[in-house]
Design the sequence.
């Protein structure tokens, strides 16, 4: 009995004194594996993400959406994967669900970083899927004025957007035919890391236009309240919401990989906490038994 207790005590003492660098290397491996090959750990789809998807899929073909890009590179980790998944849906999956018919998009940015995100996530997907600029969509670049611009846009779109990002007159863009005010817009989607969604809720949702967004995690409490109050049709919150949306469209990507990484790293921390506490209890047991 004496020998066995010494052996058991020695094992836990060795585990307690293990080089911490080994624990960090295991964590690095756990983080790296999902990015090399996503594991696809199941993620329950929440109501805001499901309603976001259902609302977009129910929009009539040919109707026009406002795509507001109000985020920048600093929000890539949270909004980038979700934005890619949304563009995959809008440019490929929605047309597949509607006999090849498409939505139209009026794209703008009340954030000066918006053009960077447009060129990184939106334009490449339009180009890849053969969408025609000026016919299927138009981009108007950075629009100054913040909330004032959003309010004015609802009332008179041509007066605020007389020409597009490339300098083309609005009257020469087929995508803008018949687009004059909020009455001609079926829904608004905001890629948001600066709070622009609130302005669209105040000046568009209040007039009956559907508003949804892709947002950073810190904004979720506020947007959850808007969603529950029926001011928003749904939202995709950070990489977790992006993973849910990727599952819905059947295209696991960077958001799923990010969620896998979080799950594995958190699991490793939990294992360490449990193991550490077991070791502490064992050490206390043997110290009492020696008395």
Sequence:
């Amino acid at each position: 009995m004496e020998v066995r207790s010494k052996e058991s005590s020695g094992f836990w003492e060795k585990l307690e004194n293990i080089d911490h660098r080994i624990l960090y290397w295991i964590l690095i491996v756990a983080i790296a594996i999902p990015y090399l090959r996503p594991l696809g750990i199941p993620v329950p789809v929440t109501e805001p993400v499901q309603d976001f998807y259902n609302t977009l899929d129910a929009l009539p073909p040919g109707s026009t959406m406002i795509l507001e890009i109000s985020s920048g590179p600093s929000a890539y980790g949270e909004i980038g994967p979700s934005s890619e998944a949304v563009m995959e849906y809008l440019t490929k999956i929605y047309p597949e669900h509607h006999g090849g018919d498409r939505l139209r998009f009026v794209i703008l940015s009340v954030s000066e970083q918006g053009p960077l995100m447009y060129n990184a996530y939106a334009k490449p997907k339009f180009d890849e899927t053969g969408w025609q600029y000026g016919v299927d969509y138009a981009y108007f670049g950075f629009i100054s004025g913040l909330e004032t611009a959003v309010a004015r846009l609802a009332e008179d779109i041509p007066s605020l957007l007389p020409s597009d990002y490339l300098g083309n007159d609005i009257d020469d863009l087929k995508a803008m035919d018949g687009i004059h005010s909020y009455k001609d817009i079926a829904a608004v989607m905001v890629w948001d890391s600066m709070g622009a969604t609130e302005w669209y809720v105040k000046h568009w949702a209040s007039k009956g236009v559907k508003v949804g967004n892709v947002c950073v995690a810190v904004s979720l409490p506020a947007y959850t309240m808007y969603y529950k109050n029926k001011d928003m049709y749904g939202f995709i919150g950070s990489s977790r919401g992006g993973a849910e949306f990727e599952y819905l469209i059947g295209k696991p990507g960077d958001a799923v990989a990010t969620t896998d990484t979080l799950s594995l790293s958190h699991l490793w921390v939990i294992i360490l906490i449990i193991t550490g506490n077991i070791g502490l209890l064992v050490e206390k047991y043997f110290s009492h038994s020696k008395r």
About this structure: The mean pLDDT is 87. DSSP finds eleven helices and six strands in the chain.
